[in-house]
Specification:
riboflavin reductase (NADPH) activity; three-stranded antiparallel sheet; 3 helices; 186 residues; FMN binding; NADH-dep_flavin_reductase; disordered C terminus; seven-stranded antiparallel sheet; Split_barrel_FMN-bd; 12 strands; oxidoreductase
């Protein structure tokens, strides 16, 4: 039996590799019998464009994730760097994510949506796969809005994409390609 204080070199390498691997940030919201819930994730990924399917990993130790799974439907928000405060709020355990100072609405189908985030999709859970400490979720997009999706040049510097890297939030702007340094060339 392994001593829980000892670290596994493979696990350490895994953590380090993913700590230095940038991940997009999304905020998930759902309506539950106990009220609206919200959760910030960095595990959202694309599965298919037709039908539009996304996937994500949710902790099996999170009550919010459990409530979100039980709801069956959710809104997936794509925050920008300027929304870092909302992403942080939704990542903070015990925080009031739908307080009087938070601008949100209920969609006609009941799911809560943060009004300030322009790109969002309503999704229905398609399949789940419980694993050791997480549940992998596949969800089908049912409706949504992406105001800048048809205009590649509409992302001003103040509207950087929000990413998570090395345990911190970062903005990723629309910078052009850069040349690698001389020592990095093949």
């Amino acid at each position: 039996m392994k001593d829980h204080l000892m670290t596994d070199p493979l696990s350490d390498a895994f953590r380090s590799a993913f700590r230095h691997h940038p991940a997009g940030v999304a905020i998930l919201t759902a309506n539950t019998p106990d009220g609206p819930v919200a959760l910030t994730v960095s595990s959202l990924f694309s599965i298919s464009a037709e039908p539009p399917l996304v996937g994500m990993s949710l902790s099996r130790h999170s009550r919010v994730a459990e409530a979100l799974l039980a709801a069956g439907t959710m809104v997936i928000h794509f925050p920008r760097y300027e929304d870092i405060d909302l992403a942080t709020l939704c990542a903070t355990p015990g925080a009031d994510r739908f307080g009087p100072d938070i601008d949100w609405e209920s969609l006609p189908t009941g799911e809560p949506r943060y009004r300030r985030i322009g790109t969002w999709f309503r999704a229905e859970i398609h399949k789940t796969m419980p694993l050791d400490g997480a549940t992998v979720v596949a969800a089908e997009l049912r409706e949504g809005i992406c105001p800048t999706c048809n205009d590649r040049h509409s992302h001003p510097a103040t509207s950087d994409t929000l990413v998570y890297l090395d345990r911190s939030w970062r903005g990723l702007g629309p910078k052009g390609p850069t040349e690698p340094p001389e020592e990095g060339r093949f």
